């Protein structure tokens, strides 16, 4: 990068000898140079770019000590093993450590270059860090997965928030905060809560061009949804092509999917927080060591997966927000080879997310999460490039509308000349010559109907009312609503698609069924058939319409 001296032969020699690399990646050198100057850094780097070198190199080069705060013991163990394999002394401290006395005495004599700790350790054992600093010195603190400090991110962890004490206790030690996913708001939060002093901020491109992203709608059942994403052998038996992770939203769903796949002869592991640590370790190892190609998991199967050749990540159920989604699909294709990321969802999946939303106490935080969720709902219904939408979430650039090859399902469909989203095309078929249609009147009618039934029925019933149906599901008092029959001239699929657009745009939301509400069909999938009810809070003032 301009303005920074090139690495010297000394630097390159250490890079080659200790890490086996012949050159720094451009942003790595910028960060390492700033660390060597004693500056604070805030780094947002796409997965696989090479974050670890940014703190490992300075420690080795200066024969100092890097203390690395990392969220997971398994992650630390992997890193320590990898460093030891390169003859770099490293250890981790934490409750899982068996030979504590020995490790501490080695640490205080300056044996280790890189020391991994959990954020909880800094809370409980800061005196050990003080002793380390007094006896050997600490040349830098690296805060890995730094987005965990922010509740505006997706993985908030209270002990991360308290890491601000490091700056107070060790004012002279530079801090390097690293993460793969952070919006501008999260970046600001990282810098302020860690007390970074005029940090060097580095943001690499978030794009992972080798990941193809697609969205599918759930069909009849688990097998009809998932088998099309598997290959068939010569006997017609299904199998995953390459290492595959299927993420499910709950433990129950994880078990259901894993057992169903096993039932049809597909070998897979399961991973969720309800399993014992031993069971989880076994599943993890069998997947990482290629003993099994498929793991069905909750997001608990996460940060510690350093497997380069994951070829497919499937979200079976709607993800809850862009940030965790991008982090999760980031586990695919770390080796740079083409990999596919699929979401398979039903609109009713958001009922689970809404249930969790209602548990959040702080109004501000709940609203933030709701906004993130609405954005995800919009993403799933997009007709334009999905990658552009995700990237714009992180960079605030407006997404480009030019479809690209090997990018996402919408780009592929647009390039092949087909309309991207059947649901919306039903709505857009009524666009005028200029490609515009004012949906205000129809939207208001739908919203008024939802209000008229006090948010207490499914979209299917709302449509029956709007279309003036006389069927039994339409209760007598619904027939007295002013909107009864007001939407006769439009088809059922038009109203369904419009309903979806209103949900995506945040004008209307599906809530779980209230007592006494219309609960028929609960648990069945498909738009309007999963027993969700509609509420229409705060929409009276929002009549901007769609154009
Ligand atoms: P991240 O934490 O950003 O996902 P890692 O630190 O795990 O990435 O590094 C990803 C891969 O890139 C590792 O296999 C690492 O050896 C490799 N790597 C890192 N820096 C370089 C470099 N300068 N030259 C070549 N390979 C590198």
UniProtKB/TrEMBL annotation:
GO-annotated molecular function: 3'-5' DNA helicase activity; ATP binding; DNA binding; four-way junction helicase activity; hydrolase activity
Keywords: ATP-binding, DNA-binding, Helicase, Hydrolase, Isomerase, Nucleotide-binding
Domain Helicase C-terminal intervals: 222-381
GO cellular component entries: chromosome; cytoplasm; nucleoplasm
Helicase ATP-binding domain residues: 32-200
Coiled coil: none
Keyword Transmembrane helix belongs to the record: no
GO biological process, one term: DNA replication
Segments crossing the lipid bilayer: none
Family, per entry: Belongs to the helicase family. RecQ subfamily.
Protein name: DNA 3'-5' helicase
Entire protein: shown range: 79 to 625 of 1106
